[in-house]
């Protein structure tokens, strides 16, 4: 079982769960990998090439009961622009405004005329990942493991202004005159320095007998997390000067889980597997913003704003998988969760003075029942009916993070909402599977009703800034059909097929309180339909159609090739679906169909080479920001 249908997982598993465990070596092994990519970028007719290189290495071994594994990777990546400076006019130009050319006429996501002044958030990222894992077999059936992880990231988010003055000089700051209208050109460079530590601990038994248990814990710590932005013009910023430093240093979380599985040997009206457990997590937010004299070197200064807070969840769950007949299984479970939000603090400058607001503590207690009935009438056929309730509590950032940051010249205004209610979902699914000789087919009908859905709507303002505030959506109803399948050696040996297609009708069925507030606020210059209701509209970020398919061909034991296609219908970002122009920055998302070509050749037992082209048809895709254009990649891998 997965997502909301398993009592073992909390409410944030509504969309599904991926549980990954790294295999420990049984003997000496080592490997290395070199990968390069090149992207042909051409949005707005600006043709460029962006490249990245990634290098990785791993080594591991086992000596008697002790095993170890060490993995390291290094990434040096240049991205396409993630954002565009795309403001509305602030009025008629004056004689003091610089007359410029090069801007590109455009419409914002809501259909209002705007000008694209240039590219922003051109990220040059250098990342290093280190992972050390030790395993020890205390007995043949009791295993201990410890994992230490280190992630380092240095990022420089640059910009590229399209604007030129009469002399042909680049213009990247100040008020400019475009066709007699005034626009504000506000480009800026942003730099990030991050170092995060993670620890994982696990102790478990694996007898496969009457009783097994599992203890696990994790700690994630933001040792250093700083984002630096100049408040000077780009010319002055190159010579240091004032700026802001946004810090997340000290933010982090820890988790602890205990799990038991009881497999009674007696026939208690059938075979049972009873599992139960406990979960604990604590999330901490520490997010001051400093005004600094030197934006490139100062780490702290006078506080201009601050967001702090904690959330804690404790859960207890019980589940029984009961084979009451050789063809039937009934799984029943329940989960109790206690949630606590506390130590919330927001600070901001008002009239030159730092003002503080202590947020009220919050407590919630919820119970989530789960059930699944499985019937296997034939060896090749299996059907299942699942129903489950789940609660997702607001995250510490959704509650308390209220801050304004700038990345590559784009201002991001984030507003927390300490009054968010927990999101409550009632999900159901009817599925059928048919097992082939080498593959399977699956058809499922699904439904989900979510009350007080938590959604953070990102809105593009007239200045080109992005504002986001999480809120509760009264009720969302979702219905859908999904078909998925995979098969090997179809027709002729070496032909493999896999794919899936999903149709979804997901709509906001009740949101009267928010609609009334939007009507009172009225339309805005950036969005003339901001005051329109959301009730009856499609759920943002959920397309009606989504599909993917892959055809693989193995002409020899050494060569594997594949052709893949991905499709999505358009989607919205605004609750009232007022973002009608999908092909621009800040939109919900364009429809797209992307084709990928991949090939792998096993040169020797240890050495393999891969190459391919992603988005070979060079589809222009917008999902709030532009996605990569046609991208070539090559990879060389060695495993011993």
TrEMBL record:
Residue spans of biased composition, Low complexity class: 512-531
Keywords: Cell outer membrane, Membrane, Receptor, Signal, TonB box, Transmembrane, Transmembrane beta strand, Transport
GO molecular function, one term: siderophore uptake transmembrane transporter activity
SUPFAM superfamilies, A to Z: Porins (SSF56935)
Claim: Lyase is one of the keywords in the record: no
TonB-dependent receptor-like beta-barrel domain sequence ranges: 152-616
Localization of this protein: Cell outer membrane
GO BP annotation list: siderophore transmembrane transport
Annotated region described as Disordered, given as residue ranges: 512-541
Topological type in the membrane: Multi-pass membrane protein
Keyword Cytoplasm: no
Name of one Pfam family that matches: TonB_dep_Rec_b-barrel
Main location class: membrane
Highest taxon above the source species: Bacteria
Annotated GO CC locations: cell outer membrane
InterPro entries, A to Z: Beta-barrel_TonB, Beta-barrel_TonB_sf, TonB-dep_rcpt-like
Family, as annotated: Belongs to the TonB-dependent receptor family.
Name of the protein in question: Iron complex outermembrane receptor protein
Annotated organism of origin: Methylobacter tundripaludum
């Amino acid at each position: 079982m997965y997502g909301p249908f398993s009592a073992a997982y909390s409410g944030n598993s509504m969309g599904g769960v991926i549980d990954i465990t790294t295999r420990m070596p049984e003997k000496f092994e080592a490997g290395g990998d070199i990968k390069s990519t090149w992207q042909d970028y051409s949005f707005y007719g600006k043709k460029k090439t962006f490249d990245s290189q990634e290098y990785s290495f791993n080594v591991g071994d086992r000596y008697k009961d002790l095993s170890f594994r060490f993995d390291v990777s290094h990434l040096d990546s240049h991205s396409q622009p993630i954002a565009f400076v795309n403001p509305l006019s602030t009025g008629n130009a004056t004689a003091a405004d610089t007359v410029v050319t090069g801007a590109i006429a455009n419409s914002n996501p809501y259909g209002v005329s705007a000008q694209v002044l240039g590219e922003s958030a051109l990220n040059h990222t250098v990342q290093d990942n280190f992972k050390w894992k030790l395993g020890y077999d205390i007995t043949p059936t009791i295993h201990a493991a410890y994992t230490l992880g280190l992630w380092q990231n240095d990022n420089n988010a640059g910009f590229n202004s399209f604007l030129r003055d009469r002399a042909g000089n680049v213009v990247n700051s100040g008020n400019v005159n475009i066709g007699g209208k005034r626009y504000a050109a506000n480009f800026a460079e942003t730099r990030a320095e991050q170092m995060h530590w993670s620890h994982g601990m696990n102790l478990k038994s694996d007898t496969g007998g009457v009783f097994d248990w599992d203890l696990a814990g994790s700690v994630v710590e933001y040792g250093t997390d700083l984002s630096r932005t100049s408040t000077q013009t780009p010319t002055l910023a190159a010579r240091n000067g004032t700026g802001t430093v946004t810090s997340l240093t000290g933010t982090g979380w820890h988790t602890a889980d205990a799990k038991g599985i009881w497999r009674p040997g007696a026939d208690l009206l059938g075979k049972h597997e009873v599992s139960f457990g406990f979960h604990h997590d604590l999330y901490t937010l520490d997010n001051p913003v400093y005004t600094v004299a030197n934006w490139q070197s100062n780490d702290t200064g006078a506080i201009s704003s601050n967001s702090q807070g904690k959330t804690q969840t404790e859960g207890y769950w019980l589940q029984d998988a009961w084979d009451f007949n050789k063809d039937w299984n009934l799984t029943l479970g329940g989960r109790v969760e206690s949630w606590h939000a506390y130590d919330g603090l927001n600070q901001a400058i008002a009239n030159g003075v730092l003002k503080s607001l202590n947020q009220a503590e919050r407590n919630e207690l919820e119970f989530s029942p789960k059930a699944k009935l499985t019937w296997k009438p034939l060896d090749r056929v299996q059907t299942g009916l699942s129903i489950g309730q789940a609660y997702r509590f607001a995250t510490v950032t959704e509650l308390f993070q209220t801050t304004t940051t700038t990345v590559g010249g784009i201002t991001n205004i984030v507003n927390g909402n300490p009054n968010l209610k927990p999101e409550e979902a009632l999900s159901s699914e009817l599925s059928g599977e048919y097992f082939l000789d080498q593959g399977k087919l699956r058809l499922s009908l699904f439904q989900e009703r979510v009350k007080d859905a938590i959604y953070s709507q990102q809105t593009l303002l007239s200045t080109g800034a992005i504002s986001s505030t999480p809120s509760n959506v009264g009720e969302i109803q979702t219905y859908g059909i999904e078909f998925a399948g995979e098969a090997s050696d179809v027709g002729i040996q070496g032909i493999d097929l896999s794919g899936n297609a999903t149709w979804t009708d997901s709509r906001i069925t009740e949101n009267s309180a928010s609609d009334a507030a939007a009507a009172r606020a009225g339309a805005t210059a950036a969005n003339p339909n901001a005051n329109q209701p959301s009730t009856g509209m499609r759920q943002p970020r959920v397309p009606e159609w989504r599909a993917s398919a892959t055809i693989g061909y193995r002409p020899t034991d050494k060569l594997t090739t594949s052709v893949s296609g991905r499709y999505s219908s358009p989607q919205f970002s605004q609750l009232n679906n007022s973002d009608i122009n999908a092909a621009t920055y800040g939109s919900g998302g364009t429809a797209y169909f992307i084709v990928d070509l991949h090939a792998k050749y096993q040169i020797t037992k240890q050495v393999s080479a891969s190459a391919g082209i992603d988005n070979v048809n060079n589809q222009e895709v917008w999902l709030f920001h532009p996605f990569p254009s046609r991208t070539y990649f090559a990879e060389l891998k060695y495993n011993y």
